[in-house]
Amino acid sequence: MTDHGVSVGGRGGRLGGDGQVLMPEHAVRVEGLTKVFRGRRGGDVVAVDDVSFAVAPGGSLAIVGESGSGKTTTARMIIGLEQPTTGRIFIGARERGSGRLGSRERRRLGREVQIVFQDPYSSLDPRQRVSDCLEEVLRLHFDLSRPERESRIMELLLQVGLDERHAGVYPRALSGGQQQRVAIARALASRPRVLILDEAVASLDVSVQAQVLNLLADIREQMGVTYLFISHDLAVVRQVSDDVVVMRRGTIVERGSTDHVLDDPRHAYTKALLLAVPRRGWKPVRTRLLDSMSADPAPGEAGDAPAEVDDTS
Which of 48, 75, 218, 227 has the most beta carbons within 10 angstroms of its beta carbon? Predict the structure, then answer.
């Protein structure tokens, strides 16, 4: 896998012999990640099976595949919402511990990795004004005075294309695109090294998608944050990622630079996904491969286990 990206100024680095800060080789790395769920009617469901990949600091990796491919379960393990059955997760040079995370470990992880979900409205507290939503994260992670928090809130809003007019409103008063911008601002408030975007533009219309994707590109250039982009939309993936891994039924079937994988796919499943991308004059035709997948259901994105509620802010 190619290691694209810029260095992130000294965060989590170590000192070299000449006193300069050396950055870890990868912002995030997973090795042999496996997740097995116990089925409701007996039997195990392997949602993720021996998955390994790494992303350089400031890089952007897309994990693509249909629903049930295991991509979201992989993201949930990295953020700490699910615990791996086996495998190792590294954020920078630090290996994340196994087992359930304590409050101190969750807080530390929240300063390193954040996630933006598909539905911004359901991920925001409808009883909180936008400014209160952002201030809550700042209080949790930083020792700032009230004026410093207010200044940082304005900085975050401007960074995502909003302003002081939006600070005092509730999520219901915002459009879907504005809600997602607030969700992105909240994720950036803790200054994370890694930002996971789980179908973050899938619920937005095409014009708003383009605005949010441009915003994400600008944020990455300005902050050097590393993106892990979870998506089924290959057209979107091309715009935001340097590299891509393609997952099917919990395993990686193809990986490489985004241009190489999308322009010259090797695996039949990747080719089938590309054939399903709408284009001018496109008529939907089911391929034999995708038909066979429908006849043989893959494990769900969160397996057969109920979703675990956790606060990674």
Answer: 48
Q: Which residues contact 177 (CB under 8 A, 6 or more apart)?
A: 204, 208, 211, 212
**Mean pLDDT of the region 240-259:** 94
CA distance 38 to 108: 30
Q: Do 89 and 96 touch, CB atoms closer than 8 A?
A: yes
How far apart, in whole angstroms, are the C-alpha atoms of residue 257 and residue 298? 26
Phi, psi of 17 (to 5 degrees): -65, -25
Give 169-222 pLDDT, tens digit per residue.
999 999 989 999 999 999 999 999 999 999 888 878 888 888 889 899 999 998
Count of CA atoms in the C-beta half-sphere (13 A) of 258 = 20
Sequence-distant (≥ 6) Cβ neighbours of residue 195 within 8 angstroms: 113, 114, 115, 116, 187, 188, 225, 226, 227, 228
CA atoms of 85 and 107, how far apart (whole Å) = 23
